[in-house]
Amino acid sequence: MRSNSASTLVSLVLLALGALGVAWLRAPLAARFHSVKARIDVYTLSSPEQTVALSLGYRSALADLIYAHVLVSYGLHFQEKRRFEYVGNYLDTVNALDPRFETPYRFADTLITLQPKPPRYRDYKKARRILERGMKELPYDAELWTSAGQFLAYLAPPHLPRGVRAAWRRAGARRLAHACELVGKNENLPYHCITAAALLSRQGARQATIEFLERVLAVADDEQIRKLALGYLKRAIGEQVQSRAEERLQRFHKAWHADLGFVQKDMLLVLGPRSNAASCAGIVGAEKKGCATTWRDWAAASDSRN
Fold first, then answer.
1. Are 208 and 200 in contact (CB under 8 A)?
2. What is the mean pLDDT of the chain?
3. Which of these, 12, 38, 58, 200, is most buried using a 10 Å CB contact count?
């Protein structure tokens, strides 16, 4: 019994001494810890190609892990008010591991250029390279193309050398134009289309503006969007071009409702215009009036007759 009491007493004394030691050493150690600040980043990964090999087939899982590390490190760098120097390298590795992982592409411009320290020209170029890779990997992602177009056309140019601003804006307008031709859930996308047309027009791309706005008129179902597109054609290009586009749109709707008025526009664009298969057969028949097999050929033939 006495032995057990002695052991308990010794244990309590040791716990008390340990608590006193922690309380005595904690304050100076904490002050020392907070006084030490990281000055530079160290990139701990190998090249993207080597990292892909080292993933042992778990590429998507490793991409998720590295991207999560990027997000946490981005927040810590903001807290410490220092630049996240190698964020672009980490994103390159994530893209190599999982090229169709959409989220890193969508946030690349933010992670690279929106930092506690002012971004450099090479940071904007790095963000653009990653966005362009994303658009190549995901050619039908309307949200990604819209985000990339806005970055190239609006966000980046004010911070770039004057000599390259016009080229970046033109590239952004073309990305926005492509986004307008895709099916997306963004309700504001049609309005970005009109803005893209304005950018193309200011850059002197008159024919590209005409063709783009005509494509918007062909696919837009919203009456307000069509009015905006027609109005911009009239103001920026000319009343004659606007009238021609409006007439073509009316002819298209007339042909649509005369043939397959019960189908949706998307289905009609896939099916093509109505034609007589017997009379349009062969090389000679294909050149006859009313034998166009695509809406583009139909529009060209329709314009040539008016």
1. yes
2. 76
3. 200
| Sign of CA pseudo-dihedral 11, 17, 23, 27 | negative
Instruction: List C-alpha distances in Å: 52 to 97, 102, 105.
Output: 6, 18, 18
2 — pLDDT class (breaks 50, 70, 90): low
Q: pLDDT-based confidence at 137, cuts 50/70/90?
A: very high
Q: Mean pLDDT lowest for which of 29-43, 181-195, 290-304?
A: 181-195
- Cβ partners under 8 Å of residue 292, min gap 6: 272, 273, 275, 298, 300, 301
Q: How far is the first Cα of the chain from the last one, in angstroms, to the nearest whole number? A: 114
- The model's pTM is 0.63
